[in-house]
Amino acid sequence: MVLKAFFPTCCASADSGLLVGRWVPEQNSAVVLAVLHFPFMPIHVKELLAQVQQASQVGVAVLGTWCHGWQEPNESLGPFLEGLGAIFPHEPWLQLCRERGGILWSCKVTRLQAPAVPDTPREDQVMLIFYDQRKVLLSQLHPPAVLPDHQAGDATASASGLAAVFDTVARSEVLFRSDCFDEGPVRLSHWQSEGVEASILVELAKWASGPVCLLLAGLLSLISAASTCRVFRMWPLSFLGSKLSTCEQLRCRLGHLTLVFSPQKAESPTQLMRKANTLVSVLLDVALGLALLSWLHGKNRIGQLADALIPVADHVAEELQHLLQWLMGVPAGLKMNRALDQVLGRFFLYHIHLWISYIHLMSPFIEHILWHVGLSACLGLTVALSLLSDIIALLTFHIYCFYVYGARLYCLKIYGLSSLWRLFRGKKWNVLRQRVDSCSYDLDQLFIGTLLFTILLFLLPTTALYYLVFTLLRLLVVAVQGLLHLLVDLINSLPLYSLGLRLCRPYRLAAGVKFCVLEHETGRPLRLLMQINPLPYSCVLHTYRLPSCGCHPKHSWGSLCRKLFFGELIYPWRQRGDKQD
Amino acid sequence: MMCTQPITNTKEAKWQKVLYERQPFPDNYVDRRFLEELRKNIYARKYQYWAVVFESSVVVQQLCSVCVFVVIWWYMDEGLLAPHWLFGAGLASSLLGYVLFDFIDRGEGRKKSGRTRWADLKSALVFITFTYGFSPVLKTLTESVSTDTIYAMSVFMLLGHLIFFDYGANAAIVSSTLSLNMAIFASVCLASRLPRSLHAFIMVTFAIQIFALWPMLQKKLKACTPRSYVGVTLLFAFSAFGGLLSISAVGAILFALLLISISCLCPFYLIRLQLFKENIHGPWDEAEIKEDLSRFLS
Questions:
Q1: What are the transmembrane regions (chain B) (predicted)?
Q2: pLDDT tens by residue, A185-226
Q3: Could you give all domains of chain A from N- to C-terminal order, each with its CATH number?
């Protein structure tokens, strides 16, 4: 069986010493973590290894020897290296050698115990795999890890084997704490041996984050406690809160901030990533909101907006009036019942008249309202967008009313017609058996039923036309609101931090590895370079998408069409029957 | 039954019509006694010509009802008949019919059904009130719909009324509810074409009288006094013929031909066809349960 030795590239030019690492017997591979230089006291080495083992729960051991720069194993050095094997007993014992400045590598594996069959050679085939220790340490292998690309022939490492390698490197971070400037009893060579990587800003942030998080978490818990107090649970407020998308968005943001500033440490990398994503999303949101705020409040744009808003509302009302007058005539040559047409048209016209007077009553205050509403943008662009969606909903309230009246009337007609059609055929709906049974009606029941059936049948086209027109208007408004909600949802749920990480540090999110052949000669160990395959963007999006917190109704297209046909209200009211489900 | 048959050949084993015994015959073997049990036309009925003519009078009556209704509507539409006259006549004939209805069987039917006079009065009030209340709506109901559409709908509905009417046959297609509803629908459609709402009201009232109340009286007349029923039918048919004659001579002649063919030719044809009937019955018939099994149902 081929023995795989994972060797960090940063140690390739290190001085001779001992190979420290972990032996993975299931994969028959040795993961070299660091090189321990001569001279050392074996007792110190054992102490260090015990410390690391205790801290990281990784079975770190001395795997073999590393000699760099000898032409041939000297006569004096040979027994010495053999002797080291006796001090640090390990099975198998690796002996890695590299010519100084040269490209000749050699590797020897000796097993102390004699093999069962004496004829088998004592030396196994060895494959040297070089890896970038820093990248492997920082990268996170994804659970749906794809098998590595077999570019280099017989490189066989299963996904679980790779996971073991990544895990070993990531967990033995303690080993990499000491650098060459430490005055320790042993000298190690690894990726940080030239100096520990650190940034003052990061250290400051780490140091400050604890108290800041505690303070903010306290504040947030105060706010959430206030929002759950009894006043908000009473009828009108709770109802408004559940219907206004601004309240929903605020609640969602509160949840996000609570998550980010919770004093508990993130348990898993996924959770950490989620926290970071949420934080970046909130920050971006607030930044965009501030930009909007500065744009709105400069150069009297609020005033212009307010001046433009009233004519727009007037214009919409006028268009609606024209539409109603068209409907009251002979729309598209349809034959409608003239009397009912006039009644409905006048009713809706009066409604528009009321609406216009209301808007004109409001017009002096619109600018102030807008100014104060504009301030909410500092809470984030999403809040401002939600507010915009609510304002649209309030300003098109007349369309909503028309839609509800039309739908109610139409619904009544449809249900009346369907039950009277059963009466017409001498049948009735049996509620207990959930089926249509035949039934003998009285003469007067039959007469009144048929009379009503005829009347409803001839009045249906008029009602249906009004319903159709107002439903289309309502759907337009709902589509605009839906677009706004989609935008808000996008900002809320886009994993910006993960995407940025993927863009700037592709190795941080690993989907697998690929191997490049460095040297392939007979008689020499096969040398491979392990490179990290970054996760595809679609996978990043799929894995790290934040849960959206909208209250959007989940309709399938079929059920939506069915509801529209039967005149049931689609959004946002629920039917009485839905609550029982 | 098999044992009573004489044994023709004592040497051969006797064939038995059973499957549970092993016999030296092929499975599809039958002997000469096979067709002995054949019976022909055991359920065929012998019809009397005049009895069939009498029964066909129900169809004639219904055709005449539709004809009279259409004729009256035409008179109203043309303005030849004042609605008050029709209302008065309808009211008088309804009262007369109501009295007759109880007089014929001396109140036995009423006792059996347990229907009080108060319920009758209530029904009448409901009819009158609703029709009167809805008549303005009926008047404007089909203003924008084309007259031809209304005519076509009415024709279809009246045809449906004739098809689904309960003439006394026991068939799946018969549905007196549907038949009555179609007639009312047709009358509402036609009434909405009349010039004023009073016309519409009286037309619909007349439709109820002729399509709902008149068949009930007919049924009772036919059951109790067949002679007077024949007279009433003849009178009704002649009046319908006369009414149609005043509108269109060709239509009246065609209608008369239709009535004659239904009441005289069709029975004659039925009796002639009866001679060609060849119904065979035998042991191969499906099993028929003749006993009353209701005691098993409990």
A1: 49-76, 82-101, 121-138, 150-169, 176-194, 200-217, 229-247, 253-271
A2: 777 777 766 666 677 888 888 888 778 888 888 888 888 888
A3: 2-189 (3.40.140), 207-294 (no CATH), 295-494+546-566 (no CATH)
Q: Whose CA is closest to A63, among A23, A122, A114, A11?
A: A23
Nearest-by-CA chain A residue for B125: A444
Q: What is the residue whose two structure tokens read 């006043």?
A: A231
Predicted structure pTM score: 0.73
A472/chain B closest Cα distance in angstroms: 25
Lowest mean pLDDT among A136-145, A289-298, B147-156: A136-145
Which residues neighbour B267 within 8 Å (Cβ) at sequence distance 6 or greater? B47, B49, B52, B53, B56
Regarding beta strands B280-281 and A93-98, do their DSSP bridges make them parallel or antiparallel, or are they unpaired?
unpaired
State the CB neighbour count (10 A cutoff) for residue A225.
9
Regarding beta strands A60-68 and A17-24, do their DSSP bridges make them parallel or antiparallel, or are they unpaired?
antiparallel
* Cα–Cα distance for residue pair A370/A387, rounded to 1 Å: 11
Tokens for A27, please give them.
């994969």
Range B273-282 average pLDDT: 86
- Token representation of residue A268: 């898993």
* Spatial separation of the C-alpha atoms in residues B151 and B77, rounded to whole Å: 13
Chain A residues inside the 8 Å CB shell of B181: 423-426, 446, 449-450, 453
Other residues' Cβ atoms within 10 Å of the Cβ of residue A214:
12
Is the Cβ pair A425, B175 closer than 8 Å?
yes
What is the value of ipTM here, to two decimals?
0.81
Which has the closest alpha carbon to A245: A475, A496, A486?
A486
CA atoms within 13 A on the CB side of B230: 9
